[in-house]
Amino acid sequence: TGDVVRWDGEGRLEFVGRADDQVKLRGFRIELEEVEAALARHPGISQAAVMVREDQPGDKRLACYVVPATDAVPDPRALREHAAAELPDYMVPAAFVALDAIPLTLNGKVDRKALPVPPTTAALTSRLPRTPREELLARLFADVLGRESVGIDDSFFDLGGHSLQAARLVSRIRKAMSAGLNIRDLFEAPTVAALAARLASGHTSDAWEVLLPLRTTGDRPPLFCVHPGFGLSWSYLGFAAHLPDDLPLYGLQARSLQHTTDLPGSVDEMADAYLARIRSVQKAGPYHLLGWSFGGLVAHQIAVKLQEQGEVVALLAVLDSYPEASSDALTTAEEEEFETLLSSFGEATDEDHRKSCVQEARPSVHRIASGLTDLDDDRLAAVLYTYARNVRLMREFTPGKFHGELVFFSASAEQTADTRAADVWEEYVVGPISVEEIDCTHGEMTQPPALAAIGRLLSAELRRITVGM
Q: pTM for the full model?
């Protein structure tokens, strides 16, 4: 039946809960009872019920229904802070609703169908917009989040916003306000008031710079993350929520995204160029390096060069990256179609041909990396050019030898018995190869569920390294 029961000391059956209360939300597996138990530990709550709601098609969110322990109704912000202190970000409910009692079915179970739709209005404690800029931003926040209104002090992420919605919101703000905004700005200024102030000051960050600061605070040696084939390091932004707060994060991005003609002619030259950028931030080791797919090859080569210069590389981690020539794991029919378009794009000699290739590629790009389809034609053309170029450089490259431990994060959903990471990297690593399997595909390696798992493992590895040094 799905009911979980136990015998008590007198031989009676006690109902404990349901075995099917695990749900999947945005790729994360969540035990509803775990969330309920955490909320029930709040002193102002006597009972809590949690469910996944989809009041707008395609937009699933956690909603929490609470029965106050006293006549005083707990502040939703206080409940959210309590949940955030006990639970991972993806398990924190997006909405809190106070009820006199939790509705039950005839057999005493929570009647989830009878739980009301959470209100979508802004919190009473949040201020209303004060300027035309704040009014426009508040309207865009509300539209993307599916709410009637948003106050200027409400955090986009506290209201249930996730990375895909963040990309959509940034795109809409750029179009509506002709603003040079990017996802990093939203992470750093997640409220209407803070984002409006940032836009007014003109201090928005450049999402296309080669050395992209993802988090500059912290006194540890930074973690430098090298871009995949597309050339962008935006996908590493999600690491900030899962790695130690005192660990600075930087992304390395392709120079070809900036329409410059002075480009490295090989992966080896690219590693030299990125190493110079790394040295501008961190003069001496120990160094921490990471790369996804094509970026793993570059990170490995940077590590080789650092060792040749007498430096210590304390961490070298690659996310589903392989030393043999490949094309970023383009294996499915859709991705093969995309690779054909890339080849055509790389051979294009005139602007009209390239524009045509960009338009043809958009549907395939959406399937492979949906966040990139919000780019305008000019930017997307630069990304496609970068990808086609990096595929060629990868096929012409032979890695050097790294002396030390390689931490390999394997996309286990696509692995077979004959694709063991330890075997394919053995020729290029003089030392142990630690393999961590992540339940995802190659393309999902930097999606929120995978980043959360990788972040936890990386944090443990960094702790081990720190103790050993």
A: 0.68
